[in-house]
Amino acid sequence: MIPVIGLVVGVGLGLFLQPDVPLWLQPYLPIAIVAALDAVVGALRALGERRFDDRVFVVSFISNVTIAGFMVFLGDQLGVGSQLSTGVVVVLGIRIFANAAAIRRRIFHA
Amino acid sequence: MAVVRPAESLLEQVAENALDDDYYVVRAGERYGQRAVATPAVGVVVAVLAAMLTVTAVQTQTDRPGSELERRTLVADVADRRDVLAARQEAVGALRQQVASLRGGSTAETSTDVAADTVLAGARSLRGTALVVTMAGSPDGSRAGRVTAQDVVAVVNGLWYAGAEAVSVGGQRLAETSAISSLDGAITVNFRRIEVPVRIVALGDGAVLRSRLQSNLAGRYLQERAEDAGISVGMAPSDDEVVPSAPEQRTTLRRAEPLPAADGPRGEGRP
């Protein structure tokens, strides 16, 4: 129940406050979201395999978002921002797909 | 963790270790987290994720009209420019046609002024009574006995002086920008080589032209040349001769523009 409440609260906050994302944050937000999605899909898979751990979830979420943001920042400073972003998205995308495939196998046995 | 075979490439490794190892570690070791999903920490994290997603989505949505407008403006611009290009090309075609019809001179809408001017400028062939002057080198073939460009210039000047209305040298009409010169010992008119004997056709009253030519400076010059160097000069009035039009390059002006006839200064000359 609490996750659902969190979801509703988050969406509500985003919709009602509609904060303007500062310009310096704009390149990092999409990457941070992809990294967060990776953590969430991983958590869902762990949930299905009955090895979910809220502490691991929270830590992996925060570290994923932070590291992804930091890599984009570093890439921007080095002049390879877009390439590094692409690399991060590719790796996280593969992880998301692999975890989603594991969930699918568990649910549909296919 | 059931590892069938060690992953070979980096991407395979990523795919195989997609789930964070910590989940397994916790499973194997002692419990230090909570198995329950419904914990405040999870709720906060989900809320943060949801907020991030919503904010980004809203931001993209609000940015879209701007970029959409930009795109539409660009598309409209491209279409406009294409229209302009098409219109210009059409104009080019129309103007080309106009230029061609103006150049043609024979079309009905051309004014008589233009027709008369093209005749005077040498752009039209002419026919009429004429005096034909034929110049040939001396039979002995000596260097001094050759017909030179200078001789031709003298005769042509004499013919103009005598009242010739149009002159051609060796089939080359003399126009506004014609030149008579020598190149490698040969005579050229309109930058084309002229064969010896040189045949000069001057339209006008043949007999009058001949008597005037013989009595003016050019006639005396020719007489001297004939006596000294042995070049032969024949003059024969003709009832029907044709003077061809000058080459197009010799009747086309690129830079010079005519002044209005009423305002333009008029040179004084012998009638």
TrEMBL record, chain A:
<comment type="similarity">
    <text>Belongs to the sbp family.</text>
</comment>
<feature type="transmembrane region" description="Helical">
    <location>
        <begin position="80"/>
        <end position="98"/>
    </location>
</feature>
<keyword id="KW-1133">Transmembrane helix</keyword>
<dbReference type="Pfam" id="PF06947">
    <property type="entry name" value="DUF1290"/>
</dbReference>
<dbReference type="InterPro" id="IPR009709">
    <property type="entry name" value="DUF1290"/>
</dbReference>
<dbReference type="GO" id="GO:0005886">
    <property type="term" value="C:plasma membrane"/>
</dbReference>
<keyword id="KW-0812">Transmembrane</keyword>
<keyword id="KW-0472">Membrane</keyword>
<keyword id="KW-1003">Cell membrane</keyword>
<feature type="transmembrane region" description="Helical">
    <location>
        <begin position="56"/>
        <end position="74"/>
    </location>
</feature>
<feature type="transmembrane region" description="Helical">
    <location>
        <begin position="29"/>
        <end position="47"/>
    </location>
</feature>
<protein>
    <submittedName>
        <fullName>Membrane protein</fullName>
    </submittedName>
</protein>
